[in-house]
Structures are given as C-alpha cells and as structure tokens.
TrEMBL record:
Organism, as annotated: Celeribacter indicus
Transcription found in the keyword field: yes
Positions of transmembrane segments: none
Molecular function per GO: DNA-binding transcription factor activity; sequence-specific DNA binding
Pfam families documented for this protein: HTH_1 (PF00126), LysR_substrate (PF03466)
Boundaries of every HTH lysR-type domain copy: 17-59
Family the UniProt entry places it in: Belongs to the LysR transcriptional regulatory family.
Keywords per UniProt: DNA-binding, Transcription, Transcription regulation
Lineage: Bacteria, Pseudomonadati, Pseudomonadota, Alphaproteobacteria, Rhodobacterales
The protein, known as: LysR family transcriptional regulator
InterPro entries, per database record: LysR-type_TF_proteobact-type, LysR_HTH_N, LysR_subst-bd, WH-like_DNA-bd_sf, WH_DNA-bd_sf
SUPFAM superfamilies given in the database record: Periplasmic binding protein-like II (SSF53850), Winged helix' DNA-binding domain (SSF46785)
Keyword Transcription regulation annotated: yes
PANTHER family registered for this protein in UniProt: HTH-TYPE TRANSCRIPTIONAL ACTIVATOR TTDR-RELATED, HTH-TYPE TRANSCRIPTIONAL REGULATOR
Length: 311
C-alpha cells in the first residue's frame, strides 16, 4: 500500500468534501479513492472517516491523523523537490516586488552582480508603494518595510532601516530652531504620503515617551528620491531611511536633526526591519532561496556602516 498516496487522498477528501473531489485532483475514480482510504483504515485498525451520502467527517482518530498528515505531506514534497534540485544549476524567473525607493536605490544597483553569478536566473522586479497580494500577483518575494501583520505570510528579516529627520545646512541657517519634535510645527516638512499634504511623524524620547507631531508642508510625494532631492535643495525638513541619506550627511550636504529621538513615520510604527515576505507553506525553490540570500547579504552590508554623525 502506498501510505503517502493514501494520506494525500484522505487530506484531499476532507478538504474537498468528497471522494470525487479528491479523485479529480489526482485523476482517480471515487471508488479508487475509497479503496485507498479503506486500506489505510484497515492497516491502522481504526476508522478515520464517518461516511454518509452527503458528507465526510473525521472521527477523533481521523482528526489526529489529519493534523499529522497536513504537516508531513508538505515536508515530503519539499524534500523531494530539494533533492531533485541537487546537482542542477538554478534556472527560471524570480518575481519580486519592492517599494520604489528600496528597489531603485538598493536592489537595482546590486542586481548586475547577482545576475552575473547566476546566469540561469532572470529577475522580474515590480516596484510600487502599495503592498501586493503575493498569490494574486504570482510573486515569489515581496520586500516590505516594517513587520507585515498578515499571518498568512512567512517572512525573513533582511536588515534594519532606521529613519532619521534631515535638512540641508542652508535651510537650517534661515529656519527657526529645531531642537525638539514639537518645533516641527514651525517648519516646512517634505512629506511621504500617497494621499494628501499632511502627515504625522512619531518620535520616542530618551525616557521612552512617544510624541506624535502633525506636520505640514508645501510638497508631498510617494517617491523617496524626490523628497531627498528637494531636501538637498533646501526646501525643508524630511524623514527618510538612514541608508538613503548617510552619504549626504557624511559629506555635509545634509544634517541629521533631532538626534536624541527615535523617529518613525506612523505607517511603520517603529519597526525598523526590512522583511522578505513569501506565502506560508509554499515550497521555496532554489532560485528563490538564492535571491533571499542575496537580499540578506545586500541589506546586511547596507546597514553595517558606522553611526551617523549627529547635528
């Protein structure tokens, strides 16, 4: 008796509600499905299913067996797939989604090296500032800022992306003092938003107290490079990922403001992680694992620099 086949037929029968549904999945007749499950019950010496003309329900023993089968079958499938891949060079297309700023500024510049190392792989990179449904878009990986709340996804933390408030020396020379978050009320703020010209910037002080500050400004956008360019031009104050402004602070083109406060846009709620998100339970192909390792290396290197100089 093929135990794994019988186990799979039991799971498919329960999830599909009938032997016919299980048979359609594996191109078998309902009678053949029934024989396999009967043989499984005979071998175990216990009834797994209560059968009626209208439904199938698990017995207490069946519920226990079903729970184990749901765990075992994906593991067997994964083991077989990984074994088949041994000795084969990974090939195919990796479909990835990321925020535009992260994709254009971090991932794209590093892709040539990855593609040279893996000539059998292609990368399809989709960039937008909205979270996509991985199943609907047939994505292998979605790169997200902040920990995803959706429990249907698995994730791997890639690195850190602390946010900082910055302005140009020229702007600060003619603007009011900026020593505490509430001083932002007196400043032109360049705002990351997809909807309107207002936002809330959040801070935590040295005592752990949270401070939420509504900010306004004459310019808002959902493109991080535009915010950085206009900040460099002296148009106002903005909040950006540390990695995006580190070189400009180092060469004096930008100054970090409010260094004694941890900063966050409210969308990210102080989670400083960058995450690779993928569908929970789905087999992760060798090509996807290679790209995940590449991302860990990329973001780990990006966030391992020395601390920013303080204003």
């Amino acid at each position: 008796m093929n135990t794994l086949l019988s186990m799979e037929l039991l799971v498919l029968s329960v999830s599909g509600g009938s032997f016919s549904a299980a048979g359609r999945r594996l191109n078998m007749s309902p009678a053949s499905v029934s024989r396999h499950i009967n043989a499984l019950e005979d071998r175990l010496g216990v009834r797994l299913l209560n059968r009626s003309s209208r439904s199938l329900t698990l017995t207490e023993a069946g519920q226990e067996y079903y729970r184990h089968a749901q765990r075992i079958l994906p593991q067997v499938n994964s083991a077989e797939n990984r074994t088949r891949e041994l000795g084969k060079a990974p090939h195919g297309t990796i479909r990835v989604h990321s925020r535009m700023f992260v994709g254009s500024q971090l991932i794209v510049p590093a892709l040539p090296d990855f593609l040279r190392r893996h000539p059998g792989l292609n990368v399809s990179l989709i960039m937008s500032n909205t979270d996509l449904n991985l199943n609907d878009q047939n994505l292998d990986i979605d790169i997200r800022m902040g920990r995803p709340p959706d429990s249907n996804y698995a994730m791997r933390r890639l690195g850190e992306t602390r946010r900082v408030v910055v302005a140009s020396p020229e702007y600060l020379a003619q603007a009011p003092a900026l020593e505490i978050p509430d001083d932002l009320h007196e400043h032109q703020c360049l705002i990351y938003t997809q909807y309107d010209q207002s936002s809330i910037w959040s801070f935590v002080d040295e005592h752990g107290e949270r401070i939420d500050v509504p900010v306004i400004g004459r310019f808002n956008t959902n493109v991080g490079t535009s915010m950085r360019d206009l900040t460099l031009a002296g148009l106002g104050v903005t909040m950006l990922p540390e990695w995006a402004v580190r070189p400009y602070i180092a060469n004096g083109q930008l100054v970090q403001c409010l260094p004694g406060f941890e900063a966050s846009h409210t969308d990210f709620t102080f989670d400083t992680g960058i995450y690779a998100v993928f569908v929970k339970g789905r087999y992760i192909a060798a090509k996807t694992r290679l790209f995940l390792d590449f991302l860990v290396e990329l973001f780990g290197d990006r966030h391992s620099g020395t601390p920013l100089p303080r204003a």
